[in-house]
Structure formats: structure tokens, C-alpha cells
Design goal:
Layout lengths: L4 E9 L2 E10 L4 E8 L2 E5 L4 H12 L6 E6 L5 H7 L4 E8 L2 H8 L7 H5 L3 E5 L2 H6 L12 E6 L19 H8 L2 E11 L5 H7 L4 E12 L4 E11 L2
Parallel strand pairs: 5-6, 5-8, 6-7, 8-9
Antiparallel strand pairs: 1-2, 2-3, 3-4, 9-11, 10-11
Length: 237
């Protein structure tokens, strides 16, 4: 066990102050890693079920082998690590706008996420996922490259954004630009902290087919109840 509380990293960014901290949680009697942006919690190692399910649900809809995957949002690495557990995956690019988050992984501050750095299929890419999507190139090293799956976990939900500049992505035109970067039949999956939103599901359906919103349940020991997140899954025609 560690100290009761320790701030492992901190820095001011254009989106606010980001910090990584480790604390001993008495409720579960274990070390918990947390990422905060300003006063908002972005990620906790205590709640990872939905981040894992984002990868599992998205990849379950992709047929074949030799899969090229993009994860938008590195966080604590749970989605990326789950992607790498799928033997069909040939390559993974993880895009994160905050270089410090990538440095945490490379510097060993998150020992449980070491695989994301060491797996030869994996590449951590500093960049703005939303800007890269708008410009038509999720792989800056290979403009125009297509992918079999894109898994996104950045904003709290399609209607609760970390930054206003992300808003254009969640429109029909923004989603069509993403669809154009998927192979035919490729899959887009999106994590949301909120319940399914009918309006966003309808927006997804303007760019994709086979659209659905899966509710993921998990135990919340802090509140002593079951909590839920949402994973949207959609396919390029």
C-alpha cells in the first residue's frame, strides 16, 4: 500500500489543470489512481468496467483479422490495454491531446498500464483527436489511412463536453468525416457517462448503420449502489 494520498503529476494545460494522484481508499482498502481536469474527475482506476467494455463491445462487431484500431483518449489505459488483449489486432494508435498523460505511461507512473507502452503493436500519439478527424487523418504519419475500429473516450458525453471545440464532431457532418476514415463495415464506439440520448442516437444514424446504445452496469462501492455508463456502437455502411 502507498501513502494515504500522493499527487504524482500536475500541469496547467489549455483545457485546465490536469493532475494524476494516487490515494489509499479505505472503502476498498486499495490504491486508487485518479485523473482530474480542474475540479472534474476524468478517470478512476476504481471504475473501469465501461472503459473495458468500450473496447470489447466495439471490437466484437468487427469481423476478420489484421485489425487496425484507433483509441481516442488514453486516460489510465484500460481501453487501450483491452484492445491489445484481442489477438486479431495488428496495430493500435492511441491519440491523446495532453502530452503529460502519455508521459505518465512512458514514465511508469501507471504500472498496471505498462503493456500499452511495451506492446510493439501500440503507438501513443500526441494530438487532438477531434482536429485530426476533421482534417481527415487519424494517423499523422499516413494521411488517408483507414481503420477497422475507432473507440472514443474523451468527453463526459455527447452533450457534456470537456471543451466547446469538440462540439462539431458530434454533428452529422462531423460523424460522417469519421466514418470516411473507417473501412467499409468498420465500427465506431463511444463511451458516455450519461444515460442513452435518443437525439444523439438519431444523429449517429445519419452517418452510420446498425446504431445502438448499450447500458453498462457496474458496482459502485463508494455510493453502495449500481452505477451505469453508456457505450454507443455504430457501423460504417
Amino acid at each position: 500500500m502507498s501513502l494515504r494520498f500522493e499527487e504524482l503529476a500536475w500541469r496547467a494545460t489549455p483545457m485546465g489543470e490536469i493532475s494524476l494522484r494516487r490515494r489509499l481508499d479505505p472503502t476498498v482498502n486499495q490504491d486508487v489512481y485518479e485523473v482530474k481536469l480542474g475540479e472534474e474527475f476524468l478517470m478512476s482506476s476504481l471504475f473501469t468496467v465501461a472503459e473495458i467494455e468500450l473496447a470489447r463491445l466495439g471490437l466484437a462487431e468487427v469481423a476478420g483479422d489484421g485489425l487496425d484500431v484507433v483509441v481516442g483518449g488514453l486516460g489510465l489505459g484500460y481501453t487501450a490495454r483491452t484492445v491489445l488483449e484481442d489477438d486479431r489486432v495488428r496495430s493500435l494508435i492511441v491519440v491523446d491531446a495532453i502530452e503529460d498523460v502519455i508521459a505518465w505511461h512512458r514514465g511508469g507512473l501507471l504500472p498496471f498500464a505498462e503493456t500499452v507502452v511495451s506492446d510493439p503493436r501500440s503507438r501513443l500519439q500526441h494530438g487532438d483527436f477531434f482536429a485530426l478527424t476533421a482534417e481527415g487523418g487519424l494517423d499523422p504519419n499516413e494521411p488517408g489511412r483507414l481503420f477497422h475500429a475507432v473507440l472514443l473516450d474523451v468527453d463526459h458525453s455527447p452533450s457534456h463536453l470537456l471543451h466547446p471545440s469538440h462540439g462539431a464532431f458530434y454533428t452529422p457532418d462531423g460523424l460522417r468525416r469519421l466514418a470516411d476514415q473507417l473501412h467499409p463495415g468498420g465500427v465506431f464506439a463511444l463511451w458516455s457517462n450519461d444515460p442513452p440520448e435518443d437525439a444523439f442516437t438519431a444523429t449517429l444514424a445519419e452517418a452510420f448503420v446498425d446504431v445502438r446504445a448499450d447500458v453498462v452496469t457496474f458496482d459502485n462501492p463508494l455510493q453502495r449502489r449500481t452505477s451505469t455508463n453508456t457505450v454507443y456502437v455504430a457501423r460504417r455502411p
